[in-house]
Amino acid sequence: MTHPPASRNYSEQQAGSLRSGDHLLLPDGKRSAEIQRVDIETDDFGTPAMVLATLTGGGVLRIAAGSAVPVLDAGGQTEEGAVPGDLSDRVAETDPEAAPEAAAAEATAADDSGPEAVGPATAPDVVVPPLPSVPPAASGPNEEDLALIPSFDGLPESVVAAAAEIHPDAVGVQLLTERLAKGINTKSGSCLKDLSDLAHELFVIYKDAENALAVADLLNVLPFDGNPGRWASVEASLALSSYICRQLGQTERAAVYEKFLRTPDSMETDPFKARINAKVRQRSLNEPNLYDKEIFRSIDNGNHDAEREWRLLRLEALLFLRAHGGSETIGAQELARRIGNELESVRG
Q1: Cβ(103)–Cβ(233) under 8 Å?
Q2: What does DSSP assign to residue 45?
Q3: What sign for the dihedral angle of Cα 277, 278, 280, 281?
Q4: What's the rounded Cα separation, in Å, for the pair 51 and 39?
Q5: Which residues, in sequence order, are CB contacts of 267 under 8 Å at separation 6+?
Q6: Which run of H or of E encompasses 345?
Q7: Which residues is 289 bridged to in the sheet?
Q8: 63 has which bridge partners?
Q9: Is 0.70 topped by the overall pTM?
Q10: With bands split at pLDDT 50, 70 and 90, how would you rate the model's confidence at 115?
Q11: Class of the domain covering 10-111
């Protein structure tokens, strides 16, 4: 990167935090250009690799994601004391092939000037909206939220034991409760997985919404601790609880579970990383893994046990999408239909 002279009114800014409207000092260190749009290119591993700054009037600057670039402060001047260079010059320095079109556009705007002239055509909408300098920090469950979740009497093991008593002939329930009866340790990933599996077993297979919610709530009140492995079980439990409460008409309680589920989404305080995380998260919601190939392969092989296990995983993915309110590719109504189909298939 070429550093501009010290006399300029500029400040260095991370490439990933650039926004539309910023006046970027061009590589020659003499002229500036206003940014119209900012796009991010990732490498094959999903890591931000390149920032593409589209300039007003045309031209694109390619900037390495980790670079620091000079941005003119408000009212900044060029070295000669004049306003930044005209449009055609700025674009020519950035993208020579775009210079003739940019110059023609500026000349047309000048010819049409008059009492009713409004200047160049309005730029299109920005694709990536700017984020606040510091996103709101995520918070764990507060007292108002927790008040909507029924509390239980006694030890957490008693909640599991109560579910086992109601389903004495349910092999899956009994196996899970036997392990959990030895002691529930919320620091143990395997223990959290057993609790989540038990809640799903109670509701999905035995249609026991009451006990499924009671078991799930042992997980639902746990805050996000930054460990993705442990959080996966809590996440699945929250998604299941949200669906059950929506089915029962308990919308406020369902909204609390959905709020807890999205807690990790807003924990990143770096604006650039937060923006990238949001794009990756939206992509995962738009392109979820619903295990279609695995399910069809099991059907072709006549392996009903394997088909059931894959359908349970698909159901969890659909419940997760439902707790997020759907995605850009699968709406809430379509999700409700698919979840109903999977429940019918697994229970049948």
Answers
A1: no
A2: T
A3: positive
A4: 6
A5: 137, 138, 224
A6: helix 332-347
A7: none
A8: 51
A9: no
A10: very low
A11: mainly beta
Query: Is 251:217 a contact under the CB 8 Å cutoff?
Result: no
Q: Print burial letters for 256-270: b (CB count within 10 Å at least 16), e (below 16).
A: bbbbbbebbeeebee
Cα 187 to Cα 177: distance, rounded to the nearest angstrom: 18
Query: Across residues 219-230, what is the average pLDDT?
Result: 90
Q: Residue 314's closest CA among 333, 295, 330?
A: 295
Q: Which two tokens stand for residue 142?
A: 């507060």
By C-alpha distance, which of 222, 285, 230, 210 is closest to 257?
222
Q: Are strands 32-42 and 10-14 parallel, antiparallel or unpaired?
A: unpaired
Q: What is the mean pLDDT of the chain?
A: 79
Find tokens 């501009």 and name the residue: 4
Q: Where are the domains of the chain?
A: 10-111, 143-347
75 against 329, higher pLDDT: 329
**Which residues have CB under 8 Å from 50's CB, separation 6+?**
40, 41, 62, 63, 64, 65
Joined tokens for residue 52: 């593409």
Q: Which two tokens stand for residue 110?
A: 């000048």
Which single residue is written with the structure tokens 């010819």?
Answer: 111
How many residues in total does the chain contain? Answer: 348
Reduced to 3 states (helix: H, G, I; strand: E, B; else coil), residue 112 is coil
**Furthest CA-CA distance within the chain:** 86
Q: Please, which pLDDT band fits residue 267 given cuts at 50, 70 and 90?
A: confident
Q: Name the DSSP letter for residue 85.
A: P
